[in-house]
Each structure stands twice: as C-alpha cells, then as structure tokens.
C-alpha cells in the first residue's frame, strides 16, 4: 500500500475506488465488485446503468439510474445474475441509493408516492448507499413501523455493513455495526471488522482502521449519516 494512502486513511476522501461503473448492456463481461453484504457474507455486485444515464455528475436527487445485480455462482462455475433493486441518485459525489421493502424483498420506487407511503409503514427496511469509495447496506428495524418509532423520538435498530475500498486497488475492509439510532442520541452496541487486505499492508491498515481516530472521524460520522437517512429520506414527514 502506498505510504500516502496509509498516512491519510483517517480521511474519508481516500476511499475513491468504488462508485457506479457504467455498463449499458447485459453482457457477461460487465464489472463485478466484491463486497460484504449485511449478513456478513462476501458477495459480488454489478451496476447496470440506464442508456439515458450519460453523465452521473449531472443527475439530481431522485433520478433513476438503472439497477444492481448480485452474482449467483452455480456448482459448475457458471453464474447467474439476481436483481437487487432499482438505483436512484442520492446526495453528492455521484452517490446513489437502493431501498428494499423487506416485507416482500422488492425494490421501492424512490419517486412513487404509494411506495413512499408504504415505506413509512415498514418495520424493516434495507438501504444501500453506493459511492464515495464505499458500498454500505443498512437494515433499520423496530417492533413498530420504523418511521413511527423514529418520529416519536425513540431509537430504532440499525445494522450496517460498510465496505471501504482503498484507492484503485482490490484491497478493502468492512465495518459491521449494530447500533441504536434516534433523533437526538445514537448508540453503538457492537463494532466488528473484516479485512480483505494483502499481507504486506494488513498490519498497518488494521492498526489505522481500528484506531480511536478512525472511530471518531469516520465511524461516528457514518452513524450520523444513518440518522440523516431516516430524517431526510425514509421518514421525511
């Protein structure tokens, strides 16, 4: 790993290796990205962009971008593609999102009022945030509808798996966090790491990623982002 990357690992700006890679056809050679799913299993994901998506930098929040597939490998080595959900533009820096209704495991239309209304009734919602060098999955859950609990000022459960990609290399690591998210207070219940780093750099990356500074500068900010997703997207009144 290059020294400059090691020296700047505490800055979120170094994670610039992962975003939507345009693929406008359904060929077998499209790009696959390894990542850790919310169940802590290694998967491969690929992004199929709409032919109308010519410039991601010009998209606005809510614009439809395409869809994401996950790779399913058969015993004979041949793989099939299983659709995860529809991708929509989200925020800045070419970030995008996918929202899954975990009652029926179907993707939700970010621009459809009936889907938005349904989203507010769900006790379990899955959210993908893609871009900025990361792939993150967050499952929000509660005994009552997540948005009802959150808007009443109570905490909801959030399990997040965030994959951090180091520059243009294949190296990555992931944080697995179980937290309580509220309007005024958040609580990290557990934090684990998975490293997919070459042996030469593993010790240095592990030391930096598990440091107090990384927790304060990156993980705490990620928890705040999880709250903003509830406030500004999933549970917006």
What do you see in this structure?
This protein is an alpha+beta fold and 237 residues long. 22% of the residues lie in helices and 37% in strands. It contains five helices and eleven strands. The chain has helices spanning 3-7, 113-119, 146-151, 199-209, 212-234; strands at residues 33-36, 42-49, 64-73, 79-89, 96-101, 106-107, 124-131, 134-141, 156-165, 172-181, 186-196. Strands 1, 2, 3, 4, 5, 6, 7, 8, 9, 10 and 11 form an eleven-stranded antiparallel β-sheet that branches. Strand 3 (64-73) and strand 4 form a beta hairpin. The protein is globular, with a radius of gyration of 18 Å. The termini are far apart. The model is unreliable at 1-17 and 22-27 (pLDDT under 50).
Q: What keyword list fits this structure?
A:
single chain, 237 residues, alpha+beta, 5 helices, 11 strands, 22% helix, 37% strand, disordered N terminus
User: What's the end-to-end separation, in Å?
Assistant: 45 Å
Unreliable spans: 1-17, 22-27
Structural class: alpha+beta
Number of helices: 5
Approximately how much beta-strand content do the residues carry?
35-45%
Helical content, roughly?
10-25%
The largest sheet, given as strand count, sense and whether it forms a barrel, is:
11 strands, antiparallel
Estimate the mean pLDDT confidence.
Answer: 84
- Rg (CA only): 18 Å
* N-to-C series of helices and strands: HEEEEEEHEEHEEEHH
Shape designation = globular
């Amino acid at each position: 790993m290059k020294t400059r990357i090691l020296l700047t690992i505490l800055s979120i700006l170094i994670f610039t290796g992962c975003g939507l890679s345009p693929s406008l056809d359904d060929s077998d050679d499209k790009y696959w990205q390894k990542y850790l799913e919310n169940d802590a299993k290694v998967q491969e994901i690929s992004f199929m962009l709409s032919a109308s998506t010519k410039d991601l930098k010009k998209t606005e929040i809510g614009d439809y971008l395409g869809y994401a597939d996950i790779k399913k490998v058969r015993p004979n080595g041949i793989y099939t593609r299983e659709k995860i959900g529809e991708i929509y533009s989200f925020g800045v820096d070419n970030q995008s999102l996918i929202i899954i209704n975990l009652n029926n495991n179907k993707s939700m239309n970010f621009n459809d009022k009936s889907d938005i209304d349904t989203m507010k009734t769900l006790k379990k919602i899955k959210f993908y945030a893609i871009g900025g060098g990361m792939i993150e999955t967050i499952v929000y859950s509660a005994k009552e509808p997540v948005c009802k609990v959150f808007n009443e000022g109570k905490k909801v459960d959030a399990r997040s798996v965030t994959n951090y990609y180091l520059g243009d290399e294949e190296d990555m690591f992931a944080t697995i966090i179980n937290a309580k998210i509220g309007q005024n207070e958040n609580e990290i219940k557990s934090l684990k790491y998975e490293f997919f780093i070459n042996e030469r750099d593993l010790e240095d990356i592990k030391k930096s990623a598990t440091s107090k500074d990384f927790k304060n500068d990156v993980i705490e900010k990620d928890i705040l982002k999880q709250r903003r997703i509830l406030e500004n997207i999933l549970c917006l009144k």
